[in-house]
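Protocol step 4 of 5: obtain the predicted structure for the target chain.
Materials: sequence only (see below). No template structures provided, no constraints applied. The aim of this step is simply to have a reference model before the mutagenesis design in step 5. Sequence pasted as it appears in the construct record:
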Amino acid sequence: MASGVQGQLLHVTVLACSNLKYPRWLKSEPSPFVWLKHPSSEETRTIAWTGVRNPVFVEKFEIPLIEGLSTITVDVWNSSSTPDYKEFIARGWVTLDKVLT
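Step 4 output (structure tokens):
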């Protein structure tokens, strides 16, 4: 990781997901959203605007960097009609070692 990144902002654009496979037990019409997880700030989420199997997000985020941060986790969840109940769909990772060099 590049040195001196503490406090700098990483600009991330979440574009879309493709070929999502929803579990058979999904209890509601799919309404996917993405959650970016990283230790340098609160979890950030965005709800898809179009698509069910291939949702399009096109959301931009600014993530404050911290020394040693090497990965951002990207989870895809389904937003159900119950506010406190979310259904996990998929997970991916963005490794930052190549992004910051």
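Step 4 remarks: Residues 57 and 88 are 17 Å apart (CA to CA). DSSP finds no helices and six strands in the chain.
Proceed to step 5.
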